[in-house]
Specification:
This protein is of the alpha+beta class. The protein is built from three helices and four strands; from the N terminus they run βαβββαα. Helix 1 crosses helix 3.
Length: 93
């Protein structure tokens, strides 16, 4: 069975690349053994969207009205790819 691939689409004109790379780093540290890859996808229009390579959207800044916190994004990714994984301090309320 192949491992899932995550895509982070970010607005290049808004310079969201730093946020995208930071989130990518957080996800790779947390889910490195669980992922088949992580791709940064330059885009436009103020987009900041995290999705599976199959198009399943995990987080969309426009829909949520905010950028994701690291904890929030890790929980969303965990629930999508490895539901039983303990996230340690990221699971604490």
């Amino acid at each position: 069975m192949s491992k899932p691939v995550i895509e982070i689409h970010y607005c290049r004109t808004c310079r969201f690349v730093l946020r995208a790379t930071w989130m990518a780093q957080e996800l790779l540290f947390t889910f490195g053994d669980d992922l088949g890859g992580l791709t940064l996808v330059p885009d436009d229009g103020g987009v900041f969207r995290v999705q599976m390579a199959d198009g399943t959207v995990l987080f969309d800044r426009h829909a949520a009205g905010h950028f994701p916190e690291s904890k929030e994004l890790k929980q969303l990714v965990r629930d999508a790819i490895v539901p039983g994984k303990d996230l340690g301090h990221s699971d604490k309320h």
